[in-house]
Structures are given as C-alpha cells and as structure tokens.
Specification:
Elements lengths: L2 E2 L1 E3 L5 E3 L1 E3 L5 E3 L19 E4 L3 E7 L9 H17 L5 E7 L7 H10 L4 E4 L3 H9 L8 E3 L9 E3 L4 H14 L4 E7 L4 H13 L3 E8 L8 H4 L1 H5 L3 E4 L5 H12 L4 E3 L18 E4 L2 H15 L5 H20 L6 H4 L5 E3 L2 E5 L5 E4 L1 E6 L2 E4 L8
Parallel strand pairs: 1-17, 7-8, 7-9, 9-10, 10-11, 12-13, 12-14, 14-15
Antiparallel strand pairs: 2-3, 4-5, 6-8, 16-20, 17-18, 18-19, 20-21
Helix pairs in contact: 1-10, 4-5
C-alpha cells in the first residue's frame, strides 16, 4: 500500500496525506476547505517561520549576496510555505527557515539551535560542502535530513532532489529505441563532470551513443551556439536539452529551425511556460506528475506570481511527507524507519520512496508535449 500525498480537488486545493501506521496501513486526512488567504512570507531579511505548531521542521537555505532568497532556494521556501498552509490546518507543525549562506561554518551553530528547539526534521538545499557538513554532524546530535541538493552520504540522510540527469536517462530511452541512437546533449556550463559521465552511461545503457556534450551559459543569449556545433548536430539523431532558465526556450527554437530532423528530449527542470511554445510540440520529457503540479500550481502562482518549478514541488513534497507522518503518529513519527517505508509516498513530484542507502527511488512519468500539455505515453505507475 502506498502512502498517499495525492492532490484532490476541493473548494480551493488540498493535498491528501496519509501517515504510515502499524502493519503498513495508511490513514487519510479528511478533505478540508482551506482559507483562501495568500501565504505571504515575511521579508527574507528576517528569520522566517511559517505555521504555528509545536513540531518544527528546519529548512536550511542559502541567501544570495543581496540578502534574500533567490532562484531554487526561493522556490523551495515558497513551496514549503504553501504546503504548511495546505496541509496543517490543525496547527501542529511549523517551518523555521535558517540561512546557511556562510557555508560549512554556519552548520554547527544552526543545528545546535535546531536541536535546542526540538526540531524533528531538517530539509536543506545548499552547496555541496555545506550539505556535507550537515551530514557529518553525528546522527544522534541532529534530526533526520532530507537533502534537496547534490547527493551526500551519512546516517539519517535522505537525498530527495529531483535529479535532472535521472530525467534524461528516463526520457532518452524511447527516443533511442525508436532509432535515434546518436545523441548530443546541450547543457548549462555548471553541470559537473560526474554528471556528464552519468549521462554517457545512461545513453549507453539505453542502446545509444553520446557523441557530444555542448555546454552553454544560461545567463547569456545562445548566439551562435548551434552554428558553431553544426557538424556535431548534423551527425546526431537526437538532442537532449537540459536547463531551467529562459535560455532553454531560445535554444529550442534554434534547434527546431535549423535541425528539424532531430528528435528532442527535454527534462524535468524545463520552465513550465515553455510547454506552450509551438517549438516544444512533440518533445519527449520525463517529468513530475502534470495533474498534481497543475492543481498545486494554481495556488502557487496565485500567491507567488510565478509558475511552480520542480524546486517548489520538492519543497512542497518534503513538507507533505512530514505532515503526513506527524498527523498519523505525532512528532515522534519523524524517524528514519517511517521515512524509508517500502510502500513510499505519492506527491506533486510523483511516486517516490526513500531507500536505506539514503537515495530516493522514483517512478518518473514519461510524457510528450502536445498543444502545451504533457500527455502520458505510458500508464502512470500506481505502486512500487
């Protein structure tokens, strides 16, 4: 039986959560009508708390140099805030947002303070060194950690980030199977070398060959990126376009104009607005559950004036997991044993479960973009 964090249509929006009970039974939270009050966070220059309950979830993020949360950190915070407003009408939980922009040196005092507040769970999105410093704190001196950034290892550490490389590995398979075996990847220049090797291995396992990786700067116009790599793209059967910035749309239009023969594979991190661009029609993409993200996305856009991103969905689901467990058994339910239930959870990011190794196993949906929508090209997974 899968523990459900399933969106349901009510007068506004809600997420149906269930807690793990004895014998792998689950108990659903009753439908509820939510107050249509915008979840407006206080200014980011102050320490933020969302919710009013006694069970704390500590959210560790890094502010930008200008002193506010930006990009993925902002989206995760806002997704988590939305989840508290959606799921905690009983007022049993709260989220404490802590800035760890100072890096590893900020970790020990931040976690000591969280422990003093009896925090039940840590959720973090931070640079690798900072995340590793969190994981290095002895397990008996900190709560369990749900990590939304690059994977790290450690006791009571659960890596949950929706991995763009995993999305590519899933999405490229049907394209290679259909005969487009020679693959070129266009990726932001921030991609790590280890991820490039993972891409190469994934393409090979699917029966294809990665013939080139072209890096671009997402902060600047793509310019002659495609012209400079014309020979490589002419030799390819498919192109994988990675990234989460506006540059993705410009590159996609260029590919469709100059290399129309290429099959195109997108990723889970594409901006949702790009789906409605005619250039995206026919793109294969392994992504989050579109039905769930549409429901949650309506309220997210209303409160935050921007579309739901994969990062916001991760923030929402991380809090939804905690809310489901606390509703079932109280604050003491936030344990590694409860988080690693074999039945898993279903949330905005789809069906997932944490494994004892600390990694998240996902059933990622496979879709084709048609007329601005994600259309499933295979049945949706219902269980592990």
């Amino acid at each position: 039986m899968t523990t459900i964090l399933r969106p349901v249509r009510i007068s506004l929006l809600g997420l149906l959560t269930a807690a793990i009970l004895s014998g792998c039974e689950s108990s659903s939270v009753a439908d509820k009508v939510l107050d249509d009050k915008a979840l407006k966070p206080p200014p980011s220059v102050v320490e933020e708390t969302f919710g009013r309950g006694s069970t704390e979830v500590t959210l560790l993020l890094t502010k930008a140099p200008n002193g506010i949360y930006e990009g993925a950190a902002r989206d995760i915070r806002d997704g988590a805030a939305l989840a508290i407003g959606e799921l905690d009408d009983a007022g049993v939980m709260k989220i404490k947002v802590i800035d760890v922009a100072e890096g590893p040196a900020a970790v020990a005092p931040a976690l000591a303070a969280a422990r003093a507040r009896n925090s039940g769970l840590l959720i973090s999105y931070a640079p690798q060194a900072t995340t590793a410093a969190i994981a290095a704190i002895p397990a008996d001196q900190r709560p369990p950690l749900i990590n939304l950034s690059s994977p790290v290892t450690g006791a009571k550490v659960f890596n949950f980030g929706f991995d763009e490389v995993a999305s590519v590995a899933r999405g490229v398979r049907p394209v290679i199977t259909s005969g487009h075996k020679r693959v070129v990847v266009l990726t932001p220049n921030s991609m790590a070398g280890v991820d490039e090797e993972r891409l190469r291995s994934a393409v090979a396992q699917a029966g294809g060959a990665l013939i080139g990786v072209v890096r671009y700067d997402p902060a600047t116009p793509p310019g002659d990126l495609l012209t400079r790599n014309k020979a490589l793209l002419d030799d390819a059967g498919a192109v994988v376009l990675m990234g989460d910035s506006a540059a993705v749309g410009a590159i996609l239009k260029g590919v469709r104009t100059s290399f129309a023969k290429l099959a195109v594979v997108g990723t889970s991190h594409w901006p949702i607005e790009l789906y409605s661009d005619p250039a995206a029609n026919g793109v294969i993409i392994a992504a989050v559950d579109p039905d769930a993200s549409q429901l949650i996305g309506e309220r997210y856009r209303r409160f935050n004036k921007r579309s739901l991103s994969v990062y916001a969905a991760e923030g929402y689901d991380s809090v939804a997991v905690a809310a489901g467990l606390v509703r079932g058994k109280g604050a003491t339910a936030l344990t590694p044993e409860a988080l690693t239930t074999k039945t898993g959870f279903r949330g905005v990011t789809g069906l997932f479960r944490f494994t004892p190794s600390g990694m998240a196993e996902r059933k990622i949906g496979l879709y084709k973009i048609e007329a601005g929508r994600l259309v499933a090209i295979e049945p949706k997974a219902v269980s592990f």
